[in-house]
Design goal:
Blueprint lengths: L6 H15 L6 H12 L5 H23 L2 H13 L10 E8 L4 E7 L6 H5 L2 H8 L3 E3 L15 H10 L1 E3 L3 E6 L3 E6 L7 E2 L12 E6 L4 E5 L6 E4 L6 H15 L4 E7 L15 E5 L2 H25 L12 E7 L12 H20 L5 E7 L9 H4 L4 E4 L5 H8 L13 E5 L3 E8 L2 H8 L8 H14 L7 H5 L1
Parallel strand pairs: 7-17, 10-14, 10-15, 11-12, 11-13, 13-14
Antiparallel strand pairs: 1-2, 2-6, 3-4, 5-6, 8-9, 8-17, 15-16, 16-17
Helix pairs in contact: 1-2, 1-3, 1-7, 4-6, 8-13, 9-10
The structure holds adenosine-5'-triphosphate.
The site of adenosine-5'-triphosphate has 15 residues, from helix 8 and strand 17.
């Protein structure tokens, strides 16, 4: 220990002792007493020694409190009781506690009263969460001291750090496997996780990281998954998800990926991709969408013919590397229901039929459909299409009905209104914060692929093979493979 001769020096040493011993939690009444005492000028060597001893006691107590589970466990049991989650003869009982340092959570395993089920507890999840966060605490972190300026305001700065309060933001998850598991995370999801360039190389060929859940990175592997339904209210981050998927696929598979982009929001969202060579069809209205979908269907039919002739079941078995992604942003614009213009209605009905066909048969031919809408209703997402859209991403929506159109169950209407917050569902639901894809990364990835060859030429070549030539029977997909 270093002793300074001046009063200020001793004060600083005393402050630092407090801060050291209270690196995680502070017990305010002791700290306040301590500060008041040394402020009155009764500092000094003896005081330092005595208080160091008492601070060691506080440290022990602090450590005990930090690792002690009674706090949250007591609260959980109390909340369960207040919510009526007990029977006449039985209450919830703690069976085991696991502390997961890496995951930053503590898992409490309970035996629940007979006759109760997970849903009884899940329906009260908001109450559990509020109960666990019902006070603010003083929390001192060592990193707060990095910004200190050593001048005459040092004591004030230290005081500010010590007295700053934070609101607890614990998150909980519940699971049942014969026992009820309640995981309490010290911190919930952040409101932004940026996609970083170094993440590209950590991915498998067709893998795309969608976002971060409390426990892990949520990835979708298009080698396994095929079609995806993406829904969410306006401005909640659908286009960002589409940009994220498109950019990652393009970066990791520039020679094997192809896109049909149907952007019914006026072409603004996808315009940056319009001239890259991997984009085979680009549409911004229903008529163009119909033409683009017909091209895709023609390719699909050719691929099936090829597979059949060679005795393969699918492109994977045939070792065809090409995958074609049909991405429709604002698919509700193609819904014929409610369309009053007769001609347009006819076009939309054709589009709907083409989409159904692609969703139903596309998988084996290497087609992947990303169907995105801000109006998830039974009219805009037909049941025939939906049953083939296995993976679902639902950003915040207004109603439980909209959530159940996307996820087949409610939940997304209760998501916090944070841009990029979503529920991912494949086999089970997971809340996540989608990665945010910066425009700079998108530009860097797409720029080398921009071509000034008019795509219409290329696509019409591929599209017109069967019409123009009998010898070149298959599309470019097959030839390159
Ligand atoms: N994952 C995310 N993390 C943080 N912010 C996000 C995220 N996704 C989107 N945002 C923010 O939300 C804004 C709107 O996002 P985006 O354009 O993707 O929404 P949208 O649902 O497609 O909107 P619209 O339906 O109006 O086209 C973006 O400009 C961005 O600032």
């Amino acid at each position: 220990m270093v002793y300074h001769t001046t009063m200020n020096g001793i004060k600083i040493i005393n402050y630092l002792q407090i801060l050291y011993f209270h690196s995680s939690y502070s017990y305010s009444f002791i700290v306040q007493l301590y500060l008041r005492y040394i402020k009155r000028g009764r500092g000094g060597l003896l005081f330092s020694l005595v208080t160091t001893g008492s601070m060691l006691g506080v440290l022990g107590f602090s450590y005990y409190k930090k690792t002690n589970f009674n706090n949250d466990n007591d609260k959980i049991l109390k909340i369960a009781e207040n919510c009526g989650l007990y029977t006449k003869t039985e209450k919830m009982k703690l069976y085991r506690r696991n502390y997961n340092k890496k995951g930053n959570y503590t898992e409490y395993v309970y035996k629940i009263p007979l006759g109760m089920e997970l849903e009884d507890f899940k329906s009260k999840i908001g109450k559990f969460k509020d109960g666990l966060n019902n006070r603010s605490v003083r929390m001192i972190k060592l990193k707060d001291f990095k910004g200190l300026t050593f001048d005459s305001t040092i004591l004030k700065q230290l005081e500010d750090i010590i007295y700053s309060r934070i609101q607890l933001s614990k998150e909980i998850e519940m699971e049942y496997d014969g026992m009820l598991k309640i995981r309490v995370y010290e911190e919930g999801l952040k409101s932004e996780y940026r996609f970083k360039e170094e993440m590209f190389k950590e991915l498998k060929k067709w893998e795309v990281p969608l976002g971060v859940s409390l426990q892990r990175v949520i990835k979708i592997d298009f080698d396994v998954a095929s079609h995806v339904l993406i829904g969410g209210a306006t401005d909640m981050g659908k286009s960002n998800v589409l940009n994220l998927i498109t950019t990652v696929l393009l970066h990791n598979n520039p020679n094997d990926v192809e896109f049909t982009l149907i952007d019914l929001k006026g072409g603004l969202e996808f315009s940056k991709y319009e001239h890259i060579k991997q984009v085979k069809n680009f549409a911004t209205n229903a008529d163009q969408a119909k033409e683009a979908l017909e091209n895709v269907k023609a390719d699909m039919t050719n691929t099936f013919e090829f597979l059949r002739s060679k005795g393969f079941k699918n492109v994977k078995q045939a070792k065809i590397k090409k995958r074609h992604f049909v991405i429709i942003d604002e698919a509700a614009e193609l819904a014929s229901d409610g369309e009053t213009d007769k001609e347009l209605k006819k076009v939309k009905i054709e589009c709907e039929n083409l989409i159904k066909d692609i969703a139903r048969r596309g998988r084996a031919s290497g087609l992947k459909l990303l169907y995105c809408t801000q109006y998830p209703t039974v009219e805009t997402v037909s049941s025939q299409v939906k049953r083939n859209l296995i993976a679902r991403v639902c950003l915040p929506v207004d109603t439980a009905t909209a959530s159940s159109v996307v996820l087949d169950e409610g939940g997304a209407e209760k998501l916090p209104l944070i841009q990029g917050r979503a529920i991912f569902k494949r086999h089970r639901k997971t809340e996540m914060q989608c990665y945010y894809m910066d425009d700079e990364i998108i530009d860097k990835v797409i720029t080398p692929h921009i071509t000034f060859n008019p795509r219409s030429e290329e696509s019409s070549v591929s599209h017109n093979f069967e019409k123009k030539s009998t010898s070149r029977k298959y599309t470019t997909i097959i030839e390159k493979a």
